[in-house]
Amino acid sequence: MSATSRRFAVPLITSTLVSLGLAATLPASSALAQDTTDSSSAQPQRGGVIDTIIQPEPPGLVLGMIQNAPTRTVAGNIYEGLLRYSTDMEPMPQLAKRWDVSEDGLTYTFYLQENAKWHDGEAFTADDVVFSADVFHRELNPSARAVLEHVESIEATDEHTVVFTLKKPFGPFLISFEAGTFTMVPEHIYAGTDFRNNDANNHPIGTGPFQFDSWDRGTVIKLTRFDDYYEEGLPYLDGINWHIIPDGASRAVAYENGTVDVLPYGTVENFDVPRLTAMDNTCVTDKGHEYFSPFAMLWMNNREGPTADKRFRQAVMYAMDREFARDVLWNGMGEVPAGPFGSNAKFNDPDLDGYAYDPDKAEQLLDEMGYDGEEITLLPLPYGETWNRWAEAVQQNLKEVGINVRTEATDVGGWNQRLGERDYDLAFTYLYQYGDPALGISRTYLSTNAEKGSPWNNVEGYQNPEVDELFNSAATAYPDSERERLYHEVQRILLEDAPLGWLLELGFPTIYRCNVNDLVTSAVGVNDGFKDAWIAD
Amino acid sequence: MTFFARFAQNRGALVGLLILWAIILMAVLAPLLFPESPWRMVQRPFLPPMAQEGFWLGTDTMGRNVAAGLMHGAWVSLLIGLVSTAVALAIGVPLGAIAGYYGGWVDDALMRFTEFFQTIPNFALAIVLVAIMQPSVTSIVLAIAIVSWPPVARLVRAEFMSLRQREYVEAARLVGQSNLQIMLRQILPNTLSPIIVLASLMVATAILLESSLSFLGLGDPNVMSWGYMIGAARTVIRQAWWLSFFPGLAILLTVLALNLVGEGLDDALNPKLARER
User: Fold this and answer.
1) Alpha helices (runs of H) in A270-376, residue ranges in sequence order
2) pLDDT band at B272 (very low <50, low <70, confident <90, very high)
3) How far is the C-alpha of A259 from the C-alpha of A248, rounded, in Å?
4) Does A275 sit within 8 Å of B232, measured CB to CB?
5) Terminal CA-to-CA distance of chain B, rounded, Å?
6) ∠ at Cα A45 (A42, A50), nearest 5°?
7) How far A270 CA sits from the closest chain B CA (Å)?
8) Optimal mutation site among B123, B222, B223, B230, interface A, most CBs of chain A within 10 A
9) How many of the other CB atoms lie within 10 Å of CB of A194?
């Protein structure tokens, strides 16, 4: 136990020490003109460097090897996938300039950009695609591997054409090519090496609009414009500086005093958002999360304790005032979900009648099951103040209907470990939905995903053969109307069983100076948005 | 002069005693005045002080009554301060007594052990201990006790060293009293006054330590303490000053009161020293 808990102290101390002086010592950025006129219709202009923040500091920048959110955000500008996705989740060209899907839904042909180059000058070819998908991701990337299970073969038919042949039709195939999930990595650097210990990992080489320049640990990551980018004239910016500021209040100050111009999602506390957005020349958008659609949940241990009883879990759902949490803790951002599918998720059943806030009903259910006041533990998500406050609110909600809850604070390592070992009763988390139930939702409920070890699979331990069957057939069903029928059915069963608590579809604001234009142009937000961004005078 | 008269000669000590009484009263009355849990969300969030009847100190980020938190927090802070001081005394007094009484290699061994703890910065050690044991009231009390016993041990050792040569001790030895009896019956009662003074200051330090730990998020997440209130209010200090101000004031007053009382006790218990001053 001590080995994981000890990690708690060190980052705490360093972050406290660092935050004391950092905001003041950051170099003052090039002052942007305080132009409040609407310039979105104007002609894009070349030039300028954007100062922004990455929080927390990423563990590394080789996308495809590391999938943490901060890695995706920085490295999404260095690396690319075959496709991008619009904020309506429509595929857009990226390294594949166009693509064909055969009538039977089994053959996908991608035609690649002909003049795309790696940052070291080598040409990007179909062989790189085959290597990335068939070798690199099969070994390193669990989420890509899940998609590749549906793939029969991957072939380079000429230098700029790749053909994927599937075993069976797989509905979400075309939306699994996002840069963070299906990163294109250079074959000439990685082929035949030990991927994880390759020296090139310290200097990532991608095909993206920006190339890696330098990383001063704990201070700043610098990217510069890649002049040989295949899209004529792009990017408009000369570079991006990702500042690393461990303290939330200092991050807000960095924006206020002009040190940074863009605050990506999650960089400031929700309490600070109204104050910052009220500033002059400040714009805010909640777009750019459509691909991930982060969904906050409350794990409930289905294996043992009072939480193993369906009535207890339903009581928890009735006892929580989720609207209060959204309005007060998240400043009204986000949606309270009816059931297991996010309101914008594909195949969501809009007629689902979810759990309303009803403490009386909760008490009634607890009486019915004969709950004897046994103490249960609650693990908050150790991701900052908002999550701590949220755990306090839920604890209070549950206490008011007579559930005896004790909160146990952990660090991230301890939280991962406790959930991996299923050593909890209730625990906060949030998961990405990845644009399709077969990619992001079913994984949480399939009994085949329930084995111990990972804090990201079926952590609650829900086992229902009927649900397994419905999810599995829905993944490969064809056409979409049949998928919809199956998914609607599974939602009704899950809603009744309440294997876990559906808390909130999180809304994350991106705050930026209004003279930064076209910042969020895709479903993954600033992860690949700087490609199109430009600064108006 | 009676003990209290000597104590009362120090005006500051009287003021301190008064404040301390008020805080103890707060702790005792908390469950009567605010029978509901201080975690309960009762009004709209960010209500400023004096804006609404019944919420004289305003509400916090989640609409919880600051006054309720403050009163319930008094209980937590006092409890942690007293218990951890008691535990620290329970470790420090015997160790110091044995080291001072026996001297020689026993003294050497015990003092090296004590110095080992003294060389590590108090607060850093407390953070590490709480992080390892998981934050809870018990682990916090233990951590504070573990970092605060060395001064007690050193003080008691010094007293014992000077007293063990006194004639009444020699006499007791001659009568045939055992070492334990001599330590407990002859020497210890004569070292009590400096220990009491030190203990009153240790309670103050313990309250500060607990607040600092809670401020860093290492408090027991199930109890509302002043340090927790300030820690949680830190992120919104620009929007809502009162959330950190009132608990901060409470900590300031409590620690000040304990220090004043400690000084008064010092005067009362060591009248000679007080007059020389």
Assistant:
1) 273-277, 310-319, 322-324, 359-369
2) low
3) 14
4) no
5) 18
6) 115
7) 10
8) B222
9) 7
Residues of chain B neighbouring A249 (CB-CB closer than 8 A):
234-235, 237
Q: Does A395 touch chain B (CB under 8 A)?
A: yes
Give the minimum alpha-carbon distance from A513 to chain B in angstroms, rounded to a whole number: 21
pLDDT band at A241 (very low <50, low <70, confident <90, very high): very high
Name the residue in chain A with its Cα closest to that of B62: A328
φ, ψ for residue A356 (rounded to 5)? -90, 165
pLDDT tens digit sequence for B53-88: 778 888 888 889 999 999 999 999 999 999 999 999
Q: Give how far the C-alpha of residue B30 lies from the chain's centroid of Cα atoms, to the nearest Å.
A: 20
Which pTM was predicted?
0.80
B126 vs chain A: nearest CA distance in angstroms? 10
Q: Which of A9, A385, A411 is the closest to B235 by Cβ?
A: A385
Contacts of A8 in chain B (CB under 8 A): 131, 218
**Chain A neighbors of B124, CB-CB under 8 A:** 13
Q: What is the 3-state secondary structure (H, E, C) of B224-255?
A: CCHHHHHHHHHHHCCCCCHHHHHHHHHHHHHH
| CA angle at B52 for the pair B47 and B53, rounded to the nearest 5° | 140
| B227 backbone dihedrals φ, ψ, rounded to 5° | -60, -40
**Phi-psi category of residue A323: left, alpha or beta, with phi > 0 → left and psi -120 to 50 → alpha:** alpha
> Which has the closest alpha carbon to A439: A468, A465, A475, A470?
A475
What are the distances in angstroms from CA B12 to CA A101, A363, B25? 86, 54, 20
Closest among A136, A145, A122, A117 to A185, alpha carbons compared: A136
Partner-chain contact A2 B132, CB within 8 Å? yes
User: For residue range A194-203, what is the model confidence (pLDDT) as tens digits?
Assistant: 888 888 888 8
Interface pTM, i.e. ipTM: 0.84
Q: Under DSSP, is residue A283 helix (H, G, I), strand (E, B) or coil?
A: strand
**CA B277 to CA B266: how far, in whole Å?**
12
The per-residue pLDDT for range A126-136, each reduced to its tens digit, is: 889 899 888 88
